């Protein structure tokens, strides 16, 4: 499976394939994350092995976890293109009435979720360079307009949507250096784009709870309070399209990493990804006040989601080749959610004048994740993979939103790789997130006591071409 054409040589066909792949991935779709807002592994090799990637060669996708693993790739140059497809099974139950709603494909906005990926790597002497485009993660729900989630205080059916879609896309530029036969070191700088669609109804009791906790301010607050019979407020910042987002922003992040071979069969790895530095997400939105006397009063304006960041991550890993066929690997990760997801900060400025600022509490906890995987090379063409991933719960039940149910934390995965030729390989992985249940009976993030059940399946297909 290892092919070399000599250092510095490359195939024009391969370059054309890689260029096309990066362009396709940069125009990508949506993904639903399983480690809160983060996908549980990048590329089919890592995904099939439970997400391990810190001390094991997982191909070009290794630049998303530990760029130092790029030096472990056998070929001088590699281009890859792939696709994730995620199907979710999310139900929300009103524990007071027994009503429930299933998140499904109610519009063009969400689900099922897909995320193209692409990458190109090239070796120059002891250096290996990489450029890629990968969905880091996201979330998505679609509850429609007619469930109890669209009912304002006092039982008023609003006919307004409750839904969400977040996509985070990373474009890493990576480099890895083989310092010795045992040591590789690497780093990357990533351009990051994120886009958010959101439709959210808050009942009058939720609005009152936020006001009582000093989480609402602005000149529109007295206007809402002056309505004769306020029953709720609805935010809509959505572009009903497979790709476009209601608000979006650009920023950057970076990572460093290393691997060290203790023996020819055992390698250790470590990597650190910095907290992202994103601009505020901005776009157009409609704030609709629901009043029992005046009806629905929509206000168009500009909206800003302030300081919405992805967390820093520390990864430690080990990979051990038991024999020529079997390799075992494990990663331990610490994800620092508490420093970036205390509140969702919303700022709205109406076209007609006036503003409203809201802090929606989240209070995520830092998360420790254990990933374990195995790869069995059956022969020169076939490789089988399997993995398990266990994570601590980052979300707090008291601040759970039905439209942000990023709760799964237990995953099992299987994968297969097939060498089409000495220079090309197809890898497939399937991972299952076991159902996780969480209750919230607390204002302000829910009015009715709710129970959210969330499970999902993720299929990943990747084609790699070595030249």
CATH topology: Porin
Class based on secondary structure composition and strand pairing: mainly beta
Which runs of at least 5 residues are low in confidence (pLDDT < 50)?
1-31
CATH superfamily: Outer membrane protein transport protein (OMPP1/FadL/TodX)
Description:
It is built from four helices and 24 strands. The chain is mostly beta strands and 467 residues long. The strands form two sheets. The protein has a 22-stranded antiparallel sheet that branches. Strand 11 and strand 12 (266-273) form a beta hairpin. It starts with 11 loop residues before the first helix and ends with a strand.
Give keywords.
467 residues, mainly beta, Porin, 22-stranded antiparallel sheet, two-stranded antiparallel sheet, 24 strands, elongated, disordered N terminus
Give the helix/strand layout.
Layout: H1 12-26, H2 44-48, E1 77-94, E2 100-102, E3 113-124, E4 127-142, E5 151-152, E6 156-157, E7 163-178, E8 183-203, H3 204-212, E9 216-217, H4 221-225, E10 230-237, E11 247-261, E12 266-273, E13 277-278, E14 281-291, E15 295-306, E16 313-321, E17 326-335, E18 343-350, E19 355-361, E20 367-377, E21 382-391, E22 410-421, E23 424-440, E24 450-466
Antiparallel strand pairs: 1-2, 1-3, 1-24, 3-4, 4-7, 5-6, 7-8, 8-10, 8-11, 9-19, 10-14, 11-12, 11-13, 11-14, 12-16, 14-15, 15-18, 16-17, 17-20, 18-19, 20-21, 21-22, 22-23, 23-24
């Amino acid at each position: 499976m290892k092919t070399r054409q000599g250092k510095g040589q490359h195939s024009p066909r391969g370059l054309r394939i890689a260029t096309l792949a990066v362009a396709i991935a940069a125009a990508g779709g949506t993904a639903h994350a399983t480690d809160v807002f983060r996908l549980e592994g990048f590329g089919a090799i890592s995904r099939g092995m439970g997400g391990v990637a810190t001390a094991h060669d997982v191909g070009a996708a290794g630049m998303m976890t530990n760029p130092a693993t790029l030096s472990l790739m056998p070929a001088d140059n590699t281009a890859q293109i792939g696709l994730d497809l995620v199907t979710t099974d999310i139900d929300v139950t009103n524990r007071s009435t027994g009503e429930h709603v299933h998140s499904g494909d109610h519009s063009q906005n969400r689900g099922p979720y897909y995320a193209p990926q692409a990458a190109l790597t090239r070796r120059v002497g002891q250096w290996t360079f990489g450029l890629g485009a990968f969905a880091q993660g996201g979330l998505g729900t679609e509850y429609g307009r007619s469930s109890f989630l669209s009912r304002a205080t006092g039982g008023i059916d609003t006919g307004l949507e409750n839904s969400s879609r977040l996509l985070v896309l990373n474009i890493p530029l990576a480099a890895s250096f083989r310092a010795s036969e045992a040591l590789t070191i690497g780093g990357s700088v990533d351009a990051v784009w994120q886009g958010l669609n959101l439709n959210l109804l808050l009942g009058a009791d939720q609005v009152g709870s936020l006001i009582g906790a000093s989480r609402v301010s602005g000149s529109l607050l007295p206007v809402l309070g002056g309505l004769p019979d306020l029953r709720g407020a609805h935010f809509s910042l959505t572009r009903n399209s497979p790709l476009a987002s209601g608000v979006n922003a650009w920023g950057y992040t970076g990572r460093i990493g290393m691997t060290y071979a203790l023996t020819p069969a055992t390698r250790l790895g470590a990597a650190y990804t910095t907290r992202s530095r994103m601009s505020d997400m901005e776009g157009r939105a409609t704030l609709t006040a629901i009043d029992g006397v005046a009806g629905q009063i929509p206000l168009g304006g500009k909206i800003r989601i302030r300081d919405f960041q992805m967390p820093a991550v520390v990864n430690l890993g080990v990979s051990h080749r038991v024999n020529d066929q079997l390799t075992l690997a494990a990663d331990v990760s610490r994800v620092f959610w508490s420093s970036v997801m205390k509140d969702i900060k919303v700022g709205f400025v109406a076209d007609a004048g006036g503003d409203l600022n809201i802090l929606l509490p989240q209070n995520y906890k830092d998360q420790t994740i254990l990933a374990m995987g195995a790869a069995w090379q059956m022969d020169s063409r076939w490789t089988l993979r399997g993995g398990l991933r266990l994570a601590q719960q980052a979300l707090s039940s008291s601040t759970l939103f039905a439209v942000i149910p990023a709760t799964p934390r237990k995953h099992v995965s299987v994968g297969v790789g097939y060498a089409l030729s000495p220079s090309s390989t197809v890898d497939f992985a399937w991972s299952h997130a076991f159902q996780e249940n969480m209750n919230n009976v607390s204002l302000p993030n829910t009015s009715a006591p709710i129970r959210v059940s969330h499970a999902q399946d993720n299929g990943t297909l990747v084609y790699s071409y070595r030249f």
